[in-house]
Structure formats: structure tokens, C-alpha cells
């Protein structure tokens, strides 16, 4: 789990993108020891683990003064209700095994292409962004804990930006991945935000959005236990969380959330190398899901 969390945070991808396939493809091979009762439980558990992993990373960015909540808020006003809608729809997809496998196959291959073909944040900043003193475009300056000042544009949300954020959030509610992949490029391309602040602000949006989706998904599972009237919603919520699984995945995610910023700061591996390996892994997972969808 530590390796999954580290790789995903270094690549800028939600950890649930890789953990969900592991829970859906590999854990069923364990037979009677498999601790998850359904695909919906697997996706919710992956999201819950992602929340802790990214919260660990968020604490580091926040301590360093690299999170701009005023910029994150407009994204959250769109992402939280959109993720809620996606989470409510998740049970209908999770109950159809063939459809779920097909959707995941498409998602994994799309993520592989995204990592290999999309413009890198540094390229966007270099090619498109120049923060200038212009009265028509408000300039925002944020000082980090180490005294470094970062300047970037303070722009309002557009229709295309809102649509992208909503789409990524619905996907996060459905499958546990999407919001981080649409927020970070917007912050860099639209706001010309320097990468350290953009990464920290993006992580803040991801944590809040993923938390919303995870809570709603577990509540939906818990509600199924309350129909008999023998248990309350709170008891059902506590009961559906697979503690025997998350007691191992969450600590791994917390550790990975601290390793990733260290590896990134020390440049132990080139960004291109990390993204190539991660994209290859996503591609292989997509092929495996596609094979399972076709063969049953």
C-alpha cells in the first residue's frame, strides 16, 4: 500500500485509481480470506484509504504554507455536490460486474494515455504563463512558511472549468478517481499558479471531495443493513467498514503520503520515469479488466 500511495501521489493520480483494481482483481483470488463483500465495498475502501493518504500529504503542504483555500473553495463548491451525486449512482454500476469491469478498463487505459500524452505542468507554466502587473487581471501573492513568495492570477470560474470539475468529481464518486486529474491542470493553466502551491491546493480539493464520496458510499452500504430495523444507521456505517483491511491500507497510505513529497523534493527519480512506469501499470490493469469483462 505504501508503494501504491507513493507512486500515485508522485504521478498526481488519486490512490484509489490503483488500489480499487487491486481490491477488485487480486483480492477475490484469496478466496474465503477476501474481506470485502462487494465491488461497492472495495471502491469505498479504496476511497477511504486515499483520503488518509492524501490527508497525510496535505498536512505537509499546509505546514509549508502551500495551500490556498480561497482558490480551492470555488472548486469545492462544485466538486463536493458532484461527488455526492456520483457516489449515489455508484451502487447501480457496482452491482453490474461486466459493466464495472468495462468502465474500469476504459478508465485505466485513459489514465495511461493521460500520463503519457498530456502536457507536463512545467511545460504549461513555461509555454503559457506569465504573471504580469495588469489592473484587469488581479494578482494574488502567497508567502510560504520558508519565506518564498508565489504570485499567480486570481481568475473566476468559467463554464468549461466548472464542467471539467463536475465531470471529474462525478467520476470520483463513481470510481474513486478523476478530481485530481482535472484540478491541477486548471490551476496551472488558468491561474498560472506555481507548481508547489498548485499541488498543495489540488490535494486539498482531492481530500475533501474523496472524503465526501467515501462517506456517502459507506452510508449507502449501511442503509442496506438498516432495512430490517435491527441496527441503526450509525451502527451499520461502522459495521460496513472493513476494519480488518483498512487497518493495514491506511497506515501504508499515511507513510506513502510522506515519502512522495520527500522523493519529489530530492529528485530521486525523474518525473518522466515515474509517469512512464505508472502509465504502463495502468495500461496492464486496463487490459486485465477488459479481458475479464469479455471473458466473464
Main attributes of the structure:
296 residues, mainly alpha, two-stranded antiparallel sheet, 2 strands, globular
What does this entry show, briefly?
The protein is built from 12 helices and 2 strands.
Order of strands, widest sheet: 1-2
End-to-end Cα distance, whole Å, is 28 Å
Approximate strand percentage: under 5%
Q: Assign a percent range to the helix content.
A: over 70%
SSE blueprint and pairings:
Layout: H1 2-11, H2 16-26, H3 39-63, H4 69-94, H5 97-117, H6 121-128, E1 139-143, E2 149-153, H7 159-175, H8 179-191, H9 195-225, H10 233-240, H11 243-266, H12 271-295
Antiparallel strand pairs: 1-2
Structure description:
The chain has 296 residues and is mostly helical. Helices cover 74% and strands 3% of the residues. It is built from twelve helices and two strands; from the N terminus they run H-H-H-H-H-H-E-E-H-H-H-H-H-H. The chain has a two-stranded antiparallel ribbon. Helix 1 crosses helix 11 (243-266), helix 1 (2-11) packs across helix 12 and helix 3 (39-63) runs parallel beside helix 11. The longest helix is centred in the last third of the chain and has 31 residues, at 195-225. It is globular, with a radius of gyration of 19 Å. The two termini are 28 Å apart. The model has no long low-confidence stretch (mean pLDDT 78).
Amino acid at each position: 500500500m505504501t508503494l501504491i500511495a507513493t507512486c500515485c501521489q508522485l504521478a498526481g493520480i488519486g490512490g484509489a485509481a490503483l488500489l480499487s483494481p487491486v481490491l477488485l482483481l487480486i483480492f477475490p483470488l484469496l478466496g474465503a480470506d477476501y474481506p470485502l463483500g462487494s465491488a461497492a465495498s472495495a471502491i469505498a475502501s479504496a476511497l477511504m484509504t486515499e483520503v488518509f493518504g492524501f490527508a497525510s500529504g496535505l498536512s505537509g503542504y499546509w505546514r509549508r504554507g502551500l495551500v490556498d483555500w480561497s482558490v480551492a473553495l470555488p472548486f469545492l463548491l462544485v466538486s463536493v455536490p458532484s461527488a455526492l451525486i456520483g457516489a449515489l449512482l455508484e451502487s447501480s454500476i457496482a452491482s453490474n460486474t461486466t459493466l464495472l469491469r468495462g468502465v474500469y478498463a476504459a478508465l485505466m487505459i485513459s489514465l495511461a494515455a493521460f500520463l503519457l500524452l498530456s502536457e507536463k505542468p512545467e511545460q504549461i507554466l513555461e509555454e503559457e504563463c506569465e504573471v504580469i502587473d495588469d489592473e484587469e487581471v488581479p494578482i494574488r501573492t502567497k508567502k510560504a512558511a520558508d519565506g518564498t513568495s508565489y504570485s499567480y492570477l486570481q481568475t473566476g470560474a468559467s463554464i468549461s472549468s466548472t464542467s471539467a470539475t463536475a465531470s471529474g468529481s462525478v467520476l470520483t464518486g463513481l470510481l474513486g478517481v478523476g478530481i485530481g486529474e482535472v484540478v491541477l491542470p486548471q490551476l496551472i493553466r488558468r491561474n498560472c499558479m506555481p507548481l508547489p502551491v498548485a499541488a498543495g491546493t489540488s490535494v486539498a480539493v482531492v481530500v475533501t471531495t474523496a472524503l465526501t464520496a467515501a462517506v456517502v458510499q459507506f452510508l449507502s452500504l449501511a442503509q442496506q443493513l438498516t432495512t430490517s430495523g435491527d441496527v441503526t444507521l450509525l451502527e451499520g456505517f461502522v459495521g460496513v467498514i472493513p476494519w480488518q483491511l483498512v487497518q493495514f491500507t491506511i497506515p501504508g497510505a499515511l507513510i506513502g503520503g510522506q515519502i512522495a513529497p520527500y522523493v519529489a523534493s530530492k529528485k530521486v527519480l525523474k518525473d518522466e520515469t515515474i509517469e512512464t512506469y505508472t502509465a504502463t501499470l495502468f495500461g496492464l490493469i486496463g487490459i486485465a479488466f477488459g479481458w475479464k469483462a469479455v471473458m466473464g
